[in-house]
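yo, P-loop containing nucleoside triphosphate hydrolase is done. seq:
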Amino acid sequence: MFITNNLQATHRVSKNFLKVLVSPEDPDVDIIAVHGLNPTNTEFHAEATWTVEDKLWLRDFLPPQLPSARVLLFGYNANVAFETSIAGVHEQAINLLNRIASKREEAEERPIVFVAHSLGGIVVKRALVEAKLDDSYKSIREATYGIAFFGTPHQGGNFAKLGDIAASIIRGVLQNPSSTFMEALKKDSLFSDTLVGDFRHQLEDYHVLSFFETLPMGRLGLIVDQKSATLGLAGLRERQIPMDADHTGVCKFESAEGDDYEQVSFNLVRLVKSAVEAAAERARIASLSVPSSRPLSEAASVDTVTKSLLPYAVDAPFNTYSRQHDPTCLPDTRVDLLREIYTWADGRDGRFIYWLNGLAGTGKSTIARTVARKYFENGQLGASFFFSRGGGDVGHASKFFTTIAVQLAEKSQSLQRYIGDAVRKNANIATQSLGDQWRQVVLGPLSKLSGDLYPSSYILVIDALDECDNGEDIRTILKLLAEAQTLRTVRLRVLLTSRSETPIRYGFYQIPETEHQDFVLHHISPSIVDHDITIFLKYNLGLIAQKKPSLSASWP
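structure:
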């Protein structure tokens, strides 16, 4: 051991346990907290890691925000675990897995979100690696949706090796680290490339929150900097959040109203709710899956299968209830531009994507709604999807192609049958990649349509693609839409609006110029803009006059 004699005399060492801090009547998620090193080697360090002035935020602040979350606290002798390096961490990882399994015998599919501080994150990572190697823990790994790391060193930073960073943590947290402990860090140990590599193979399986300190810890300075405390995952797989705290204070909060706690709770609540939604979606798909050996007529109608198995973003179409008051273009406005779009949509131009781009507030969405309304009324609107940043299902791409497919299935019995067949053959399609979704439930069914069917063309209206929250998904969507050029029996047109942001531009770089037509909305002639503004003002002032009869006839 590496604690002082007086500490041994006055404190009992930490014990192994996994206890329930918060136990709602019918929990829908397990949040499991794992601490790091124990400065004084006391038995209450598991609680103290997350506590300030008797306020343990996981128990006292979080439940009102997540009333259905069960919160568990893992306690273990962290100092012994890390002093013995790989063997000790492996032992505690198995200890953690065994205790989790014993607490979840009747709810193995309930989602899990881990919350880990400092080197406790190493124990969590090691546990997930072990769970992948040992099928007896398979349910734990599959149930794990996300991890919130607080100051966990994942990689070296600023020319420091990972073991050196861990040594800084030891010196900063422990009062009297033993020489054997420090030597273990220098050798192989738990920070070897093997552990880092083993866990990296699983990274895409989880959603990660990486909270990192920004304040120095006395003379030791910043213990785990941003580079070391983050994994560098793409898109929404990882959110990196700076904290106004040092290494030990990064996961302690005095008040539920404090700025740092609000940052943590906002991101953690969102992560947990996503975990619950994903688990519910998996359960729904499993319960509704139609065995391919049964005739479709015996199992369910194609329409029922399509709508029940394909996730649908209800606020995506242009004419949803939530969008009913959104305006279309006023008569005698945008005349030339709308004429150009209609000519393109109805013609034989090989440029099958029309990219309408412009600055915020230039009327892109209004034009998109106007075009969608016209083709909806004449039966040629295949589908519409209006993105909205931070708008739930319309703020990301996970339901984009499945929502398009559901709308297409409503256009003809043939499409309904082809899409339904695709879903029946692959009931898990909604959980697969955007490419698989596009090719199986959109492009594939469209390619099977007979050339003599009416209508011979469909238009897709996609508004505000730049408001999709993942740049990689934006580029993927554009690349996949370009594959529609291969369709022969039906002509697909795509009207796409966005600001000219980097992911959009990069996406269009992948598409030959002969396949897309671009229009920059804010480059319209000033005289046309003035004309449209005049009509807009007259219209809205007229509405005011109707609502206020007391106004004189000459107003305004």
